[in-house]
Amino acid sequence: MSSPLKLVFKKEHSDEISNHSVNPVFSEVVSAFMSRRRFLQMGMVAGAAVSFPYLVKPENAFAAKANPSALSKAVSLGFTTIPVSTADTVTVPEGYIARPFYRWGDAVGIKGNLPEFKFDASNTTDEQAAQAGMHHDGMAWFSLPQGKENPAHGLLALNHEYIDNGMLFKDGTANWDLDKARKGQNAMVYQLSR
Predict the structure, then answer these.
(1) What is the pTM of this model?
(2) What is the mean pLDDT of the segment spanning 148-172?
(3) Which of 1, 97, 105, 146 could be stapled to 117 by a disulfide with Cβ–Cβ 3.0 to 4.6 Å?
(4) DSSP string, 122-185
């Protein structure tokens, strides 16, 4: 007996026609409409159509794009810009606050299993399983109750994409452990409320 996945994917790369109706396939429609000569004709028409406004009134061709009054009405994001910096710190605009609430190694709230993070990478595989993973790169917010727009209460789902061997293992890759690496790459869901 073949595996279920082979049954699902067995025609994935097949050239067999899956539309068994009397309708023509797309390649036949294109061939009937588009000869090489027809393609060149359409390209010339498209080029002329794009150029037409500039040929009629070239002095006004860019006037709408360069209108200073339209630019002055741009909407502000509501905060002042911050300068580029190489400092090892988070910088936010004046009037804003940034503080971490979820970091790699934070205990994830498993009752009776709240291991402390060890900066020397000596946390065990079991401890890493009860701690936040590394390198958050994907986030999604799900308001609670479900179906309501609520920025003050919801679930925050985070994806921990990859690990840094030099930070997760005391000796880098010398005694690398697949199970511990997997515990550092995972997804977590937190319930948050203000």
Answers:
(1) 0.51
(2) 89
(3) 105
(4) ---HHHHHTB--S-EEEEEEEESSTTS--TTEEEEEEEE----HHHHSTTTTTT--HHHHHHHS
